[in-house]
Amino acid sequence: MNKPLRRIAIFCGLLVLALLIRDNWLQYVKADTLREDPDNRRVLIARYATPRGDIIVGGNPITGHTETTSGDFKFKRTYKNGAMWAPVTGFVSQAYGANQLESIQDGILSGTDDRLFFRNTLDMITGKEKEGGNVVTTLNAAAQKAAYDGLKKQGGKGAVAAIEPSTGKILALASFPSYDPSTIAGGGDSDAAAWKKLDKKNNPDDPMLNRALREVYPPGSTFKVVTAAAALENGLYTTADEKTKSPDPWVMEGTTTKLPNEGNIPCENATLRVALQYSCNTVFGKIGSDLGNDKMLEEAKKFGFTEEQFTPTRTSASVFSDDMNPSQTALSSIGQFNTAATPLQMAMVASAVANNGTLMKPYMVDELQTHNLDALEKTDPEELSQPLTPENAQILQSMMETVVEDGTGKNARIPNVKVGGKTGTAQHGVENSENPYAWFISYAKLSDNSSPVAVAVVVEDDNAVRDDISGGGLAAPIAKSVMEAVIDSKK
Amino acid sequence: MSSTTNPPTHHTSTIGAIGAPSRRNTELALLVFAVVIPVFAYANVGLAIHDEVPAGLLGYGLGLGLLAGVGHLAVRKFAPYADPLLLPLATLLNGLGLVAIWRLDQSKLLQQIGQAGGKATNQLIYTAMGIALFIAVLIFLKDHRTLQRYTYISMAGALFLLLLPLVPGLGADITYGAKIWIQIGSFTIQPGEFAKIVLAVFFAGYLMVKRDALALASRRFMGLYLPRGRDLGPIIVVWIISILILVFETDLGTSLLFFGMFVIMLYVATERTSWIVFGLLMSAAGAVGVARFEPHVKTRVQAWLDPMREYTLSRTPNGDGLVHSEQAMQALWAFGSGGTLGAGWGQGHSELIRFAANSDFILATFGEELGLAGIMAILLIYGLIVERGVRTALAARDPFGKLLAVGLSGAFALQVFVVAGGVMGLIPLTGMTMPFLAYGGSSVIANWALIGVLIRISDTARRPAPAPAPNPDAEMTQVVRPS
């Protein structure tokens, strides 16, 4: 009986050996794959096990963290004035992931970024808790507050984007209606209820939409700044004060349709300055038609149209179509037809004009830091393009300043500060049935000729009487308060 | 010179009587380790979870030490020549299992779903009952060969135990699918665990009697000895019983265990390889056939083939009427997250397995917290227990003892393989518990009884042969001296 017994002994040994081999495969070969599997809840548990780093504005964190008592996630994100800052921060939630800046800089904030490896190892050796790094933004708290409060006071949907023209630093990024990301930061029932309420299906206002970056609106007359730039750059007209060849009424090329002007305004053969001052559709429509689709598109592209921007939060690409006939090009050149722009895009247009023709790449992350404030990475201002020569930029500046001093943009005037701007009222909907969007883009210039801020405001007001809506009336006051906030904070 | 002047005082034939060491002191020394290691592990869990040495450390250490000490004294008294490794190895596993159960008791998640809290205390009580049964086996089973008398009673008993869960009113459907539990008052018992031992007794007794007939009366065909038709009877009966268990109790593990044990014992009894071939073919046919038709077994197989799919299905109700479980994938994640060295006691998240985290899936907790190193050590301990059991079979002097020892060891090895392989995704999951580690009274008590029987056989095997009757002639030659 002993021979089969020895074989059974070997058989049992083989069973154990098979288990050992399987275990080595599982815990050595496949260990990393299993450990880092996104469905493995341990990944999330580890992510929330340490306090998350903060997003910082002007030296003060606009985020925080709190220890939770229920569930297996230890720390929960909190936001200070979350609704106001939501377009900047995005959200991070124990149940619903993260988006925008919270998601893009998750490696730094959660402390898992490779650049933090050395410090984390050091902390581990010295027995300190791992902590996430900080993200320092370029935003200006006063400007952001002015923008958000202005929109909130207005009460309709809208957005504000403000940029420092010389660097491209984003100073304000507001969207209304907004939401408080604190309400969905946890993983509990109240967070689920809040999440459901924010869902676009249940909430037609779509408060989670970052309108400043992700929504494109027809820019209306504010786009005439781009058309004017195209006319100057292509040598169609060389000064602000020469007469243009613009009949009024003007029948669009290839059609029998007259392009109308709003009201009884002096548009016939008006100079560029007067045309911008009174917002003549005929003059700018004809410029677009004369230059043609290609040249208009080229200029629009130089201002950043048709490209997504990464601030690092991605923006939607603003639209200027190609392959249009002359009448469509004419309509597009006054900001109608297919033309559509994000508020940030129009702020970029104003900023390029203010910065003497140089467009800087817009960005909102100034610096990445370790949790004890050592710099890991600093963003340097970067030139994106040169849509205007300095001379032409100055011509356009003087035209935009006339708009604010004597034209449609009077509501944006600031004592002792030169302000250039352009209003816009964009129609939309089938046969323009819906409430128009009120636009205002502007920049401020200090006495030393430096420009601290360029801003774009769009307001859509369902409640306002249709006639009341004009960029000058609804949007310009908000732009003014944002510019004032930036100028005041410079003092 | 002195050797010639001092003639040997003993006859050579009696040397064996004084030579064989009992190894009881070795066992005692090993037991110290088997108690101290879990005590340190227990302290480690407390420090990791609550940042303090747990208050129950002294009680736990004393409890485990006391149980091990009493067990050791019983072995010293009633089985002095027993194998010295079996008791310390079982004690070590039992102690580590207690620590892991206590560790999972601390999990809020498991407490919420009623899978933890006070389970370690229960397990300590079960352990005490197990040791008591172990000692009872040593005291009352003076010679394992007395079990031979109960061959057919054992068969009836085993069948009775196996069928108990099917009795209406008794069977408790407390696990998803497998009906292997009975409920008496507030206690649940897994009769299959006890049936394992009783069945081994029946097989050993039956095969000892029938082995010559089974081995010799056969025809040789293509290099294999084919048994005669009527000798095929018993194996077919056992096979059918296994299949019935599988179908009615939907328990693949137990069915595989019993059939595997029978084939091993049949092979040892007859020394015919053909039995192994028949056994493998029949179990494969049975398993595949049932897996195809039994929905519960089918989902287990699917979970084995694609655990991630089962995980996803368990999260999204799809109304296919089947119970999908995330456990298989959660167990794999636990193992993977442990890696080579593990997260350390108390620092893993194996509670994510939720249901049966401290019983069927307890190995995943070890995998996550002690890592590859810990699991390899535990598997080797199981391997050692099995090999000491087979060693006992080799050393046993009687065929019944040999068969019983190899049957119990083989069943133990199969159970470890089926459970550990299932949890680690090597084979489909079955509802069985890891001997000694897992939470559960039936399992602990039955396995202590199993160790008790093995110790009894090994004591008989290693006991020195009784001194031969004094040979008057030999006496004479010693007494008569040249004057």
Question: Could you explain the architecture of this structure?
Answer:
- The complex is a heterodimer of chains A (about 500) and B (about 475).
- Chain A has 18 helices and 18 strands.
- Chain A has about 500 residues and is α+β, with helices and mostly antiparallel strands.
- Chain A has a domain at about 210-365 and about 385-490: DD-peptidase/beta-lactamase superfamily (Beta-lactamase), CATH 3.40.710.
- In chain A, helix 11 (about 225-235) runs antiparallel to helix 17.
- By secondary structure, chain B is mainly alpha-helical.
- Chain B has one domain.
- In chain B, helix 7 (about 120-140) packs parallel to helix 18 and helix 13 packs across helix 14.
- Residues about 1-5 and about 10-15 of chain B have low confidence and may be disordered.
- The interface between A and B is large, with 36 and 48 residues.
- Chain B: It is a multi-pass membrane protein.
- Chain B: It comes from Streptomyces caeruleatus.
- Chain B: It holds the Pfam family FTSW_RODA_SPOVE.
Q: What is this structure, in a nutshell?
A:
Chain A has 491 residues and is α+β, with helices and mostly antiparallel strands.
Instruction: State the distance separating the first and last CA atoms of chain B.
Output: 19 Å
Classified in CATH, the superfamily of the domain at 211-363 and 385-490 in chain A is DD-peptidase/beta-lactamase superfamily
The Cα radius of gyration of chain A reads 28 Å
Largest interface here, residues on each chain?
A: A-B, 36 and 48 residues
